[in-house]
Design a protein that fits this description.
By secondary structure, this protein is an alpha/beta fold. It has helices spanning 7-26, 38-61; strands at 70-71, 76-78, 83-85, 90-91, 96-98, 105-107, 112-113, 118-120, 131-133, 138-139, 144-146, 151-153, 158-159, 164-166, 169-170, 184-185, 189-191, 196-197, 202-204, 208-209, 214-215, 220-221, 224-225, 229-232, 237-241. The chain has a nine-stranded mixed sheet. A seven-stranded parallel sheet has the order 2-5-8-11-14-19-22, with no helix packed on it. Strand 24 (229-232) and strand 25 form a beta hairpin.
Amino acid sequence: MKQDLPVTRKRYLLRRSLERLISRIKGREYSFDPEIPLGPLVSVALRRLLWLVRGNLKSMLLRQRLCGVFVAPGVTWRNARMIRFGHGITLERGVIVDGLSRQGVEIGDDVVIGPYSVIRASMLTRLGEGVRIGKRSAMDAYSYIGAGGGVFIGDCVIMGQHVSFHAENHQYDRLDVPIREQGITRKGIVIEDDCWVGSNVTFLDGVRVGRGCVIAAGTIVRGEIPAYSVVAGVPGRVIKTRKEEAITPVSVAPSLVSGR
């Protein structure tokens, strides 16, 4: 007669099964911290499974392709036909994504959008350019992307809470006309691959951040930031470089449509 597996062996097999399932959904190797007890791990896995079911049902209702999107309660997609999702994306509680824009909103594989964050590009009075977020990037809670002039975020960009992008400016030269009626300018914002952005960072219109930069918490970023720089302050300034040799110049912003 076949003997039952020891409890520790069963727990190991369950943990490995969960890891393989998530790895398959995300398209990359995924493993849990071995110190996490099995009970909380199973609880989180069940909650995420419900998010995945919700995401697939929402995709079907909106006639989108199924792409393994984890959708928490309270998530809102607006103008969903103009939103393109990759695989294994997580949209946490209260996230709003509005696709209305010239080039739409594209969110790459394995991206995480933190709770109560907002992504939008347009006003009804003026259509915005759109948003592209590269694969394996993440923004934490209460962040905001205002992409009137277009916002491009590269691959593997990690961001803390309350990070905001403002890809347009109001004109204010005239005194005889209210500022809100003087028009706006739009240049766009580019954050290249492999950057780390701290909490409460603000990106102003026209910013170009090169590859591999670190932006300290609370920084207000403007202008062009050379690759591999460490930036801090209000306004932000380069305080050191991560690379001793010549700094690579920031590349031209890729098209939101082609991604290159």
